[in-house]
What does this fold into?
Amino acid sequence: MRKILLFFIIINSTIFANIITGGVYTKRVLQIDNINLITKADKLNQVTQTMLISATKIENIQTLIKLALKENRVNFIEQFKYIKIFKNIKNGDKLLLRCLKYPSCNLEEYSSLMNKSPMHIKIASKYPNMSLVEINHRIGGISENIMNKYFKSMGWSKIEGEIGRNGIDGIFIKRKAGLIIDIMVVESKYNKSTLGNTNHGRQMSKQWLSKKIDTLEKKYPNNKEYKTINRYIESNNYKAILWNLKVNNNNLVISVKKINDNNGKILTSNIKGKEKMKINFNGNHKININNPKNDFHKDIVSWYKMEINNN
It folds into this structure.
């Protein structure tokens, strides 16, 4: 019985060893094939993402820049700058290839986006031909859409506040028995963007808001709610909020602050006491994208992922 058992163990161990050895051998053959492919590629359009797996990031970047130099996508001096930029970025070889695969991708502008923000990198890698202005508009839209979903989930209704790309990012109201009883105007910003100066005062100042509402009244003459909103603003009976979204180390960092107009001078302050919103409470302003800790965080993350996938 012992001899039979020993024979069984030996046979199975041999089979297992052959499987493991065969697996390693196969992997090595694949790696060698991949290395031969990327180093022997004559043109950038012959290189694929899977070819990058078998070599280090810096080796891939150097090979890609060498091909770019050959195809006059970069000059001799520029090559060193681009190698330095992309070697310091996570997945820099993959991001570099995304641009170089498209002859129309401007590598100078594309590489400058790599230092902007994580969301700039995501959008630029998805659309290598897109300009900085277009990417900024998309990112601004992502932040604004997440903001809209958040305030709607808090019981606010949104009405139209923008005319083209200009206007108030968010006009939110609450009604009782069909009548407006509360008004909140919100400006959405991403990362380091700040409120700007205009011909009608600073963004979110009372003067600026009144001008925007006047324009909306003229565009939508049948909507009497704008006249009501204007009265609320003129009597200082409204909330003004600054929403800011950042993406930092796989965290969504959201800031929601109160805006005060002191005779045209705009001041922001933390929201305190009864005015505090859900996002203002401890632990809610910084949300881990990969590991949201509660249902509220999961909602925010799902909105973010939805916007990224749709843009």
In short: The chain has ten helices and eleven strands. The longest helix spans residues 2-40.
